[in-house]
Amino acid sequence: MKIDLSGRWNYSGNGSSGTVSVPSAYDFTGKVVFDRQFHVNADDLDKYQFHIVCYGINHAADISVNGEFVTSHAGGYTSFVQPLQRNVLQVGAENQIRIAVSNELDPKRTIPLRPQVWGYRNYGGITRDIFLLATPLLYIRDVTVQSVVAPNGGTATVIAKALIEGPDPSQGSVPGIMPGVLGFTFEVIDKISGMSVGHGDLVPFGRQGEAWQEPEARMILENPKLWSPDSPELYLVKCSIVTSSGKEVSVVDEFDAACGIRAIALRDGDIFLNGKRLILRGLVWYEDHPNWGSALPYEQMERDVVLMKNVGANVVRFAGHPPHPYMLNLCDRYGMLAMEELPVTAPSKLLGEDSYMELAAVMMKEMVLRDRNHPSVLAWGVGDEFDPTTAGSRRFVEAVVRQAKASDQRPTYYGSRLLEGDQCLDLVDFAAVSVYAANTKEFKAQAEEWKAHHKDQPVIVVKTGSEVQQENRNGYSDRFSQQAQARFFIQRFDILRTLDYDGGFVWAFNDWTGDRPALTVNSGDPWLHSMGIVSGAREKRLAYDAVRSIFHAERFVALPAGTATTSAPIIYVLTGFIILLVLAYLYNANRRFRESVNRSLMNSYNFFSDVRDQHVVSVLHSTVLGLIVCVAIAIVASSMLLHFRDSLFLDNLLSFILVADSLKVVVVKLIWNPLRFIPAVAAMLFLWLLLVTVIVLGLKALMKTRVYGFHAYTITMWSTAPFIILIPVGMILYRVMESDVYIIPALLLIAGLAVWTFIRFLKGISIIFDIHPVKVYMVGVGVSIVLGGLLYLYYDAAHSAPMYLSYMYQMLVSAR
Asked: Model's pTM, two decimal places?
């Protein structure tokens, strides 16, 4: 008996309350309390054991019934079942279930960790089915169904092993159970015809200490129908606990499990299914939709599987976490292999910690025990793109693979992006690589190297993809066009076929929403990862038809080249030219301004001394210089950030520095729009100079020297004079940096000017306050070090930023 708990629930949290439909997902980070009432009949309390079944609550849940704590669970994508004590429930409709949900993730202590850029959305809530299940008091908790196919395929041995729980009838009367000998058996039924094709042995079982024995029954099935993507034949294994007394047999409990009979083998570096070599034609699927978040309805999940099947895919990779159980039911029915994995993407420092290892092992166990009866599941994934280069990483992979193999013997893998230094690949069965090569030449070189290094393992590309702009149809010369995306997959999969790879995965089937705004996306929306062959709303793109032609080994129509538009913004030249004209005019037309510029750069000591004693510089000149410098710096900053907008390291660095995602969204949009970036950043820099002026003026409270606002303002503004060198640099920098050889000199130039300006600023302070320069330099450097140290400690304690940035830098450099 099942009591469905979907429907309307009360909720409170995030400053609001009301009712909401469950399953559903909320799209913010925080805590929400859900509650509702349900009905239990009086007769049922004595006859049944009740369980609460949750397919997915993200991320952490505390469940109570009628005010009594029931259980806690962490992990939003693994299911759990919790038996309820009889005294928790009460007769009638006054039973209340309360679930406190939090989707807050931690950078060190949760799986998944707090998402970085390019992760998937961390939706919260009761996102999957939830119900009460009533079983007999003595019941089958779980069943493991295995099949062993004979080498000739003529027979298959079906083995069912049961986990039994409940009271012992021999120790006293148990309602609903006839006294007698307990036994376990099963029947195999053809799913299509509904006909019984055989029965397993009747296996007696009893208590073994404090627990029940785990009975194992088996049968020989003649001429089995083998499951494969081309022919997804399924059987129903109906397992039963029976009690017999003389000739009378009574069924105590039944447990149904779908079963597909197939043989997976790895030989000579290849994958074999039912004796035939298997080449994986895969898609990466994200459990995300613009209308429902991660709480996709059953109808949408089926539509997705149909779309994937129609494109010719024979395997789906569930990105980053176990899917909804219904997705695997669909994969079983439609003939789609599945690769599911833990959401582990972490630095090696974390992987080596015992607590993190135990957390991952528990999650692996939950995933495998839930899904091991599905014939569609091809392999278990340990994680994706973590750091596999240390002894701690190796310990982690050993422990989690050991846990997977203890429950099921399917192959294991993890997604890697390293060509060298990987210390863990020998511990798993597949060599699975993510390839981010910018062009086909680099892609082929990396693919060849992986194939050469892993001859004894099946080698598959588990992630390769290209961003696309939905309305861009400019031809493949524009790398964000629909034609370019289609051509990308045609070229890459042709290389994989030529190199005799065991498969490849298109990244991705559908667009998804990230959990952090990303600088490196080109969709126009910092949250949207537009990588799919269909959009988030499941609109087919040109790449959908291209992938279909690839997977069906057909020729695709010729793609137009089009014309790529230049990406060099003219605003840099125009803005630089304007401020250069203003500077040149003032320099040539105003003698006092010209002398101030010359003396501040050539003889700063005398210049600042004159400022202190004679007030020889006008406030207008100081203001104009400050504004020119701020605009020059803004031009250079915009050029460099726009040049590095495809850098994942910079993307993550901005997330850590800015902390607030809303602030990063603003910054990302400014970086992509230099016309707005330059005035906005120039204004912020000028406000910063005004703040520094106030701080300098405030120092007079600690000194005996009489200092006025004019002194502080002039010192601050004219200290920045060296940055006027950046005006011509900013005009050409974006173009110059297209050649990598000029990037380091440009960075050194900027760093040198910053140090020079800082020294000039400290010198000016020493002069106007009449303090020995060495003392000011020591204090200035000391304060800078202390402030830098405090920032480091904050980012380390609050966000583990140094660890993550070091990990990301190492991964990006090692993957080249």
From this structure: 0.91
